[in-house]
Amino acid sequence: MLVWAKIYTTVMALMNLCLIPVGGAMFFIDVPPDDTPRWMFLGQAVLVAGMGVVFGIGNLAPWFMQRSKAKWIVYIVLIAWSCTSCCTWPFSIPLLIFWLKPEVKAYFEEAQA
Fold first, then answer.
1. How many CA atoms lie within 13 A of 72 on its CB side?
2. I need a labelling partner for 104 at 20 to 30 A (CA). Which of 12, 29, 77, 112 fits?
3. How do residues 38-73 score in pLDDT, each as one tens digit?
4. Positive/negative CA dihedral, 17, 20, 23, 28
């Protein structure tokens, strides 16, 4: 099941990294929809691209961490954060239930001992 956590965070990272070109495309749209002021639309474009960078890198962070309690915490935060979208519930809720098991936490804590 640990493999599923890696697959899940990698897919989430790829989805978030896809926001970077979306933000870039928004930046080059000449006429914003719904009579939105140009400065506000540019701000939204920067925000979308920035969220793609931050959350994309954040989801890839566990790949570069050693097995420790901190890595367990990073995984649980990433899985719980993705529970805020109902589109990811079929994947994130079972993974979160698994991740909260004492055996999984012990697996990561035994690496520090």
1. 18
2. 12
3. 888 889 999 999 999 999 999 999 999 999 999 999
4. negative
